[in-house]
Amino acid sequence: MAKGSAGTLFQCSECGWQSSKWAGRCGQCQTWGSVTEGTVAAVPGRPARALLRGLPPVRPGAAAIPISHIDATGATAKPTGMDELDRVLGGGLVPGTVALLAGEPGVGKSTLLLEAGALAAERCVVLYVTGEESAAQVKQRADRIGANSDNLYLAAETDLAAVLAHIDAVQPSMLIVDSVQTISAAGIEGAPGGVTQVREITSALVSLAKQRNLTTVLVGHVTKDGSIAGPRSLEHLVDVVLHFEGDSRGRLRMIRALKNRFGPTDEIGCFELGEFGLIGLPDPSGLFLSRLHTPVPGTCVTVTLEGRRPLVAEVQTLVCQVSGNELCRRVTSGLDPARVGMALAVLQRRAQVRLGRCDVYAATVGGVRLTEPAVDLALALALAGARSDLALPADVVAFGELGLAGEIRSVAGIGRRLAEAARMGFKRAIVPADAEVVPPDSPMKVIQVKEIKGAISAGFSQEP
Fold first, then answer.
1. Which of 253, 282, 311 is the last residue of a domain?
2. How far apart are CA 416 and CA 430, in angstroms?
3. For 297, how many CA atoms within 13 A lie in the half-sphere containing its CB?
4. Alpha-carbon torsion (205, 183, 110, 28), positive or negative
5. Domain of 22?
6. Above 60 in pLDDT, residue 253?
7. CB 183 within 8 A of CB 131
8. Quick one: average pLDDT of 421-441?
9. What are φ and ψ of residue 143, in 5° steps?
10. Do 213 and 85 lie in a common domain?
11. 223 — phi, psi (to 5°)?
12. Count of Cβ atoms closer than 10 Å to residue 69 Cβ
């Protein structure tokens, strides 16, 4: 295609990938059937230096002032009323913030925002725009979860011009759009939810939020692999990107910040989704432990860090001998399959735990997803116990990163992990030998190990 000429351009409707030729599969997100044909307008080539020379002088809107003289009181976060959501946001939402909330269908995004909107409506006017449901459907959900307020206004619209008209009429302090993929605008090419439509509508809402100091929350869809649908620039346009996750068949929901210009991104919020809405869980550790009173071979308790919050969770494994020429199965749930495979190889080679002709099943309790390397030691001990049919004592926790040479590497937050395990009633902990900080006043018996063989011996011996 010649520079500066109009022509045909093929673009992925999921991620925005562009190509001069049609393809059945996107070259970036690997989605089938998402590449559609569009046009690119003729843009005359003009060097940047020529543009700079031809620009007339422009008077700035405001003079530059020393940073020490700037008043930052307007950028103070205001709580939403949901403690777990405020924990993730760093205290609340700053006026004028544009936040994007993404999650799989049915995980509870609309319920979360409806509750947050009702709580915010106690102190300001909130406009909730729904493009996926009717007003009556949203009203039924609001009645069920008790999210009714005279300051919470509801509009079922899919046209951007109508949404802007509602904003002018209501004059809200907070705007919720569910979802940005359902809103369309006249004069912009592409179908609703397409790359061009989503980008232009989000840009318009961001500009409006900054001009009116309007706190805006947008709901976004996700693709098959869990990433946010639409162009990648969508995440750069907004100030906050939140991801709401959880098993749709379970009750546990977690929210975490992938981007936050006004707060941390290392916190996690936990909720329980019930018949009457979402309930915050300030202490969710008990949800990730089994209710068995006697130790069972193949289980081990660990302490993982989700942001700055320590969570006590249980890893369960099952090892079954195969016969004949059957293929061995490796099934995981809630764990990283790559780290499970690495733990199996290290146990086989460095600790002589024979797992080659066995089916291996590894899972977590309560639907929590554990991807931190500190879970490696608990996973390895659970696998060793399942293979030898030995159970770890019920008062033992283990955490540490497993290396390919069989060594146990140190992890961060040793003190916080031990304090949380002691609070949950555990008496002993197997930790790396080079742990940087082991509190001397810890009520737990701390067993430091250097390699996986020593960890297995310490865990399954009768003496502490």
1. 282
2. 15
3. 11
4. negative
5. 1-42
6. yes
7. yes
8. 83
9. -65, -35
10. yes
11. -90, -175
12. 6
CA 197, distance to chain mean position in Å, is 25
Global pTM reads 0.77
Q: Verify that 156 and 297 share a domain, yes or no.
A: no
CA 187, CA 201: separation in Å to the nearest integer?
11
Phi, psi of 287, rounded to the nearest 5 degrees = -75, -20
Read off the DSSP letter of residue 319: E
* 18 within some domain: yes
* CATH code, domain with 303: 3.30.230.10
Q: How many CA atoms lie within 13 A of 248 on its CB side?
A: 7
Between the CA of residue 368 and those of 178, 334, 412, what are the distances in Å? 27, 6, 20
**Residues 208, 164: contact at Cβ < 8 Å?**
yes
CA distance 442 to 444: 5
The proportion of the chain whose per-residue pLDDT surpasses 70, expressed as a percent, equals 91
- d(C-alpha 322, C-alpha 57), whole Å: 79
Mean pLDDT value of segment 239-265: 88
User: How would you class 3 by CB atoms within 10 Å of its CB: exposed for 0-12, middle for 13-18, buried for 19 or more?
Assistant: exposed
Residue 1 is predicted with a pLDDT of 39
Verify that 278 and 290 share a domain, yes or no. Answer: no
Structure tokens given for 214: 């309007």
Last residue of a domain, one of 226, 251, 282: 282
Paired sense of beta strands 18-19 and 98-103, if any: unpaired
Query: For residue 2, what pLDDT band results from cuts at 50, 70 and 90?
Result: very low
Q: Does residue 55 lie within any of the structural domains? A: no
- Tell me: do 297 and 443 sit in the same domain: yes
- What are the tokens at 407? 């060594």
Same domain, 311 and 456: yes
225 and 122 in one domain?
Answer: yes
Q: Do 303 and 452 have their domain in common?
A: yes
Cα–Cα dist 150/398, whole Å? 52
C-alpha 63/C-alpha 259 separation (Å) is: 30
Together in a domain, 298 and 356 = yes
Which is more confidently placed, 410 or 17? 410
| CA nearest neighbour of 75 among 167, 206, 213 | 213
Higher-confidence residue of 36 and 397: namely: 397
Answer yes or no: is pLDDT of 286 > 80. Answer: no
In-domain check, residue 351:
yes
Helices (H), 213-332: 233-237
- Residues 6+ away with beta carbon under 8 Å from 129: 155, 156, 157, 163, 166, 175, 176, 177, 178, 183
pLDDT for 53: 59
Residue 58 located in a structural domain: no
- b/e per residue 391-403 (b: at least 16 CB within 10 A): bbeebbbbbbbbb
Q: How many domains does the chain have?
A: 3
410, 448 in Cβ contact below 8 A?
no
Residue 3's pLDDT is 41
